[in-house]
Amino acid sequence: KKANTIIHPRQVVLFVLCVCVCQSGAETLRYSLAEEMERDSFVANIAKDLGVSPSQLASRKARVVSEGNEQYFRLNLNTGVLTVKETLDREVICPQSDICTLFFKIFFENPVQLIRGEMEVRDVNDNSPVFPEKKMVLEILETASPGSRFPLERARDKDVGSNGLQNYSLGSNSHFSLALGTGKAKYAELVLQRQLDREQQREVNLLLSATDGGSPPRSGTAQVRIVVLDANDNIPVFSREVYEVRVAENSPPEQLVVRVAAADPDEGSYGRVRYAFTQTSERSRQLFELNAATGEIRVSGNLDFEETKKHKLVVRATDGGGLSAHCKVHVEVLDVNDNAPEIVLTSLTASIPEDAPPRTVVALFSVRDRDSGDNGRTECAIDGDLPFSLTPTFDNYYELRTNAALDRERTAEYNITITAMDWGRSRLSSRERIFVQISDVNDNPPEFTQDVYTISVKENNTPMLRIGKVNATDADAGKNSRVSYALVREKGKEQTDVSINSENGDVYILRPLDYEEVRAFEVTVRAADGGSPALSAEALLRVLLAPRSAEPGALVAKVVAVDADAGQNAWLSYELAKATEPGLFRVGLHSGEVRTARAVTERDAPRHRLVVLVRDRGQPPRSATATLAIALVDGFSEAHLRVSEEAPAADPDGRLTLYLIICLACVSVLFLATAAAAVFVKVRRARQSMAGSLPTFPKSAAESSAGSLPRSYVYDICFSAGTVNSEFRFLRPLFPSAELVLKESPER
């Protein structure tokens, strides 16, 4: 035997990287590297291959993204060098493929650009051939004729190509030789060279070796034990040499796939056939189970069309005498729509300005469906009516773009739901939510709540008095919505009587004002936001000056009446019987004081006439009235003039009252003449105790126009604004009626 010297691959080839950069289509980079490269090993200089500088890679935020969930590469933006993130194992990455290619994309921003890349992971001889069983047992009849073939378990080598399984060899012996079978997978068969004799040798032990084509080659061995059986005339025979079956990938466990059958005409134990898998991969043995007695093959694992589309099984039928036959079972896995599309977000702009033009790229994503045919075809759509659209690019990549003008004041953020759906019969879908915020742009000027603000202020005000407020709002956000206020200076006018708080819009009077000098003035207020450039709006501020006036409850006059009776008959109460404007004045029930019921305004009539009624508590009650004439004036000088001008004017009821007084006077004179003789002696007593006499006002007060007094007096009273006591100023008596003058108090 020739000794095999094993040299570690790293001593021969230090994982030399072969980089082949090709251009496929517009921009496609192709590289290749050997597996098992150490972490951070050099792959390629992307900057050099693309003809850009490393600074451009950094400024455009270049990054590399591998397809699938695993990211195998890292891009250094400072040097432009592409390296591997972790050690790559081809057998793990591509377990079912002879050619292992990793696809990746290089993404650029500003502007968005995608460059496709392919990385072929080359195999190195890092795996030795391995037999599924270290010890194999074959039972062979001693009557087997020379030239008979006996299949052996196939060795497996995870490497591919020349590094894969290449040859089998058999240790020296006197009975068997080795025949190699060719095809997709190499296998070995024992060939009987010399007749066996159980009586001479019950067992034959062989050493089977499998060797790959690596440099240096790797090998694996297994012990083959041959048990020599007594003669058995017939071997099992299968009904078919090859069984072709199909099974759906979503088949449940224990589902029957196929039943193989082999017949043996022998009797007894030589005619009983048992079944077993041979030359079948370990993965297929995990997915299918074979009933040794019935030959039924059932599903035992989860089939996956995307993993393996076809399984090749070899079934061996062995009778009780050790004779065996073989058949092949080809199982085709049918694809079902069991994979929903996957949305992989590659690039996202979380915030865009509201003045972004239509067709602005917001996000970039890809859609992948592992199914095949229509089950793997996908389509994407945006849920709802939103100002966004999807644009397909290439390789199932989509761009999310705006398709209309945006307005942050209407919608500040968008919750975009993207639905990806396949074309399968039972359609599957998946969703991805993307949140996009709209950043504010200063596109809205402030707005005043009113175009004109009218504020009233009393004269002789205190300095820096707050008299009102203006208010403006801005629909923008942040500093663009912060409003500041200022007065607009008019040309030729250096100062104004008001000021405004720039932050809250409060308006202040700077100095005391006089109604006789300034009755009203206007200024322009400007509201500006904090944007750049700033937007503004203007409103008119009108200030009206109001003179001082009589307040509610101010004393106007006091009416006094006396009743000569005693007790309850002398209890008097006052009420306002008639008034030009009833709501302006009121009379005290027991005091007779006439006061203002509310503030006097400019809208009130300048002249008022009041009729005050006084009533006692007798049965029947008796009453008398007094008339007050009131004039609203601005001062005492105007009061004298108003009284003089209005004295001749009589109340519309004055003539009727005069007639009544004359009639009462005549009746009184007649009564007094008749009773003069009877009461002459006791006139004083009669005046004190006369029953049923009328209540009368004192001589200094206004006499009742409805009573028995011969005439009435008029109080000429001037009442100035601000008077808070009950003092009267008697000017002169007026006939036939009294007039009371009150200073007018306009109110705004």
UniProtKB/TrEMBL annotation:
Care to name a GO molecular-function term for this sequence?
A: calcium ion binding
**Which keywords accompany this UniProt record?**
Calcium, Cell adhesion, Cell membrane, Glycoprotein, Membrane, Repeat, Signal, Transmembrane, Transmembrane helix
Q: Which residues form the Cadherin domain?
A: 29-131, 132-238, 239-343, 344-448, 449-554, 552-650
Q: Where is the signal peptide?
A: 1-26
How does the protein's chain sit in the membrane according to the entry? Answer: Single-pass type I membrane protein
| Primary residence | membrane
Question: Which InterPro entries is this protein grouped with?
Answer: Cadherin-like_dom (IPR002126), Cadherin-like_sf (IPR015919), Cadherin_C (IPR032455), Cadherin_CS (IPR020894), Cadherin_N (IPR013164), Protocadherin/Cadherin-CA (IPR050174)
Q: Where are the transmembrane segments?
A: 658-681
A biological-process GO annotation: homophilic cell adhesion via plasma membrane adhesion molecules
Q: Which SMART domains match?
A: CA
GO CC annotation: plasma membrane
Pfam families named in the record: Cadherin (PF00028), Cadherin_2 (PF08266), Cadherin_C_2 (PF16492)
The cellular location(s) given in this protein's UniProt record come to:
Cell membrane
PANTHER family assigned: CADHERIN DOMAIN-CONTAINING PROTEIN, CADHERIN-87A
- The protein here is known as Protocadherin gamma-C3
Q: Which organism is it from?
A: Anser cygnoides (Swan goose)
> What lineage does UniProt assign to this protein's organism?
Eukaryota, Metazoa, Chordata, Craniata, Vertebrata
